[in-house]
TrEMBL record:
SUPFAM superfamilies listed in its UniProt record: Acid phosphatase/Vanadium-dependent haloperoxidase
Membrane-traversing stretches: 7-26, 50-68, 107-129, 135-157, 220-237
Protein name stated in the entry: Phosphatase PAP2 family protein
Keywords assigned by UniProt, alphabetized: Membrane, Transmembrane, Transmembrane helix
Highest taxon in the source lineage: Bacteria
Species per Swiss-Prot/TrEMBL record: Paenibacillus hodogayensis
Length: 284
């Protein structure tokens, strides 16, 4: 069984995975991933709009960290987990028992811990290299929307992870990432379950990737999203309800992000009135 030894080990794996994904997405030349990194740095220093959108993501991630602090200080803390369990019962337990396998545990842990963040970061490199700035901005908007909608739920609608509530469910993550609770847990609270951000962000990235010029990226991201969604049940993390909520959020965030990046009205149909087009080549 493949084991992730620590968060440092996971970070190294993320960097390697980003390189591999860029390699296959950008004409399969060993230097193109570095070229994409160079273009990323260039845009940061020459394009204010590009920089401000990245800062927006950093800020919303900072608020996600603040949410964990606020939650720990809240005096009145409801728990909606029993209601969720009453709604869906032992679905995750049955699901896990049907598929449990040592090799599968390693693969799905890798997708959950490594491939998930690698997709978000690689998308920036792919869309920057391809000069598809509308897709880059759509990713930024969509990520911010995902977190802005999810954070209030984490504060006021807490749902505990399946393995911590249902004794019939194993936390298989620990078999492939033994230090998960010490290294990864500070990034996500035990009751930050509904909606599933692993689901919502995976769905968002898949929807945006379908518009990419790269055939590999257009195919890989939706497949990876399905694997990640499969992993949230298999590893004993999320409820079916979390996945449903995450899917709706991911589709909504992708739609809004794409429409804002295109300078269009958010909820109008394809023939809806468009606002005046802005110059979307990455410059103000």
């Amino acid at each position: 069984m493949f084991i992730i030894q620590s968060m440092t080990h996971a970070t190294v794996l993320i960097v390697i995975t980003i390189y591999v994904l860029l390699f296959f997405s950008l004409k399969r030349h060993p230097l193109y991933p570095f070229h994409a990194a160079g273009l990323f740095v260039h845009e940061l220093f020459t394009n204010r709009k590009y920089l401000f959108h990245l800062l927006g993501i950093v800020i919303i991630l900072f608020f996600n960290k603040i949410e964990l602090t606020l939650e720990s200080k809240m005096k009145h803390h409801s728990d909606f987990t029993p209601a969720v369990f009453g709604l869906e019962g032992n679905f995750v337990s049955i699901f896990q028992k049907v598929f449990e396998n040592g090799a599968l545990t390693s693969v799905l842990t890798f997708f959950y811990v490594v491939v998930f963040p690698a997709i978000m970061l690689t998308s920036i490199g792919v869309y920057t290299y391809q000069r598809q700035f509308k897709l880059f901005y759509a990713v930024c908007y969509a990520l911010m929307i995902n977190y802005m909608i999810a954070i209030p739920f984490y504060l006021f609608f807490p749902v505990t992870e399946v393995h911590a509530f249902n004794p019939n469910v194993k936390f298989l993550m620990l078999e492939a990432f033994p230090t998960f609770e010490n290294d990864y847990r500070p990034l996500s609270g035990l009751d930050n379950c509904f909606p599933s951000l692993h689901t919502s962000i995976s769905v968002t990235m898949a929807m945006i990737a379908l518009r990419s010029k790269s055939l590999f990226w257009k195919r890989f991201v939706p497949i990876a999203a399905l694997i990640i969604i499969f992993s949230i049940f298999y590893l004993g993390v999320h409820w079916l309800t979390d996945m449903a909520g995450g899917t709706v959020l991911g589709l909504l965030a992708a739609r809004i992000g794409l429409r804002i990046s295109e300078g269009r009205t958010i909820f109008a149909g394809s023939r809806g009135l468009d606002v005046k087009k802005r110059n979307m080549d990455g410059k103000w």
